[in-house]
Every structure is written in C-alpha cells, then in structure tokens.
Amino acid sequence: MSEAPGPPTKRSRAPAIAAVAAVGIALLLKSKTILMALKGLSAGKLLLTFGSMLAMVAIEARIFGWLFAVGFVLMILVHELGHGHAIKREGLQAGYPIFIPFFGAMIALRGQPRNSLVEARIAIAGPVAGTVAALGATTLFLLTDSRLYLALAYFGYFLNLFNLIPISPLDGGRVARMFSRRIWIVGLAIMAIFFLLHPSPQLAIIGIFALIYSLSRRSAPPGPDETQVTPKERTRMAINYFGLAAFLTIGMLLAGQLLGKR
What is the pLDDT of residue 107? Predict the structure, then answer.
C-alpha cells in the first residue's frame, strides 16, 4: 500500500499568500450561503468561527506552508457549509462552523432530524460539497499545472473519503444507519472491486464494516422511522453513498499518481 504523497514544502511567498488570502476573503464575502448564515448571528459567534479558522491556518502553515494551509482550511469550510445548507434545507437550525486544529471542523445542528433519511441527507451533504471543492482544485491544477492545487485536490479526495467511513461521529456513520443487509452486501462487492484497483485504508474500513453489517443485520434495518423511509429512498441513498465513495477513490488514485511523478 503506497504512502500518501505530501503537500508542497514551505516557501517564502508573501505576495502570493496575500493574493490568495484576498481572493479567498472576497469569495467568502460574496457567497450567498455565507451571507445567509451570517444573518442573526452575534459578533461573538462570528469571531469564534473566523478566529478558529485563522488559528487552524496558522498551525497548518507551520507544517505545510501558508498557501497550502489557506487552501486546505477553505476546503474544510466548503465541506461544513455543505452540512449547513442541507440543515437549513430540511427546516432545521444550523450553528456556525468551528475549526479544531488536527481534527477538522464541526457545525452544530439545533434540533432533531425527523427520521434517518433526513439525517443521512445532512450527513452526506458535507462530503458532496467537499468533493466539489476537490474538483475545483483539480480544475485549477489542470489550468495552471501547479503542484499546490494537485496536493489540495488529493487531500480533498482523501479526507472526504475518510469522512464516509461508517463510524460515528463521522458522516458515513450517520448515513449507514439506514441501510439494510441487502444494501450492505452490494456495497461490500463494490468496495472490494475498488479496493483491488486502489488499496486504501478508507476503503478497507468501509469494506470491513460492510461485511459486519451484512452478516449481522436483519433483512431491513431496525428503527422507529421504518414506516417513514421507503425502500426506494434507502436504495437511492445507498447509490449516492457508495457512488461517492467510488468517485473519491478514483480521484484520489489519479491525483496520487500525478503527485508521485512530481
């Protein structure tokens, strides 16, 4: 199993850092999602969010350099905004993202999802948004041939695939609750195929849990919302979950191969 290629090394690029920061701030201020989230929030909560963001950038920058740190934290922000948008779409209240160095970020959910389908939609929205951010970094790499964007793309695919591992409190753990035994058997076959193409710890763990669930679960998952969520909805979510995991695996494979050649 090959090791993950590292991000670009730290360099002195103060003008470029300032330009990236300025562009990032401008995009954030113009984002409709951000503006909607800002409405009604106190200055203290806003300060906590941006303060934790800056703290995480500063810590990551000491290891990987400012350019990578800024891009990395922005990608995590996009992931969390995906959760926030889904929470609001389901009629629930979302808190503001809080960044935790070395762990990532979290966004508070105020209220209880009415069933497992709603919870799964909220959970998978983060990796979906994070995948879009990784694709954006991939596009910038294709346009500029910059190793920085390629490294960001790789880690974007890597982290969002990691989040799909079906263990709480990861996003995958909240999605996996609604899958039946039959779905896990099919998912196990899919993960086995992609693991043969590109062995990775994330796929191995997903496959192990798919095997456990397929052996231990009944024909339909238990729960009080059994009559609220139809088999069709469960199947559709399973297609989204395993399809996204497969796509992230391919993205990580291609980006890793390109990084290894640079």
Answer: 81
Structural domain boundaries of the chain? 14-260
Cis-peptide into 199, omega within 30 deg: no
Q: Are 195 and 203 in contact (CB under 8 A)?
A: yes
227-244, pLDDT tens digit by residue? 678 888 888 998 999 899
Q: Answer for the pair 178, 229: CB distance below 8 angstroms, yes or no.
A: yes
**Euclidean distance between CA atoms 89 and 82, whole angstroms:** 11
Residue partners of 175: CB distance under 8 A and separation at least 6: 120, 123, 124, 164, 166, 237, 241
Give CA–CA dist 262/253, Å, rounded: 15
Question: Residue 136: what are its φ and ψ, rounded to 5°?
Answer: -65, -45
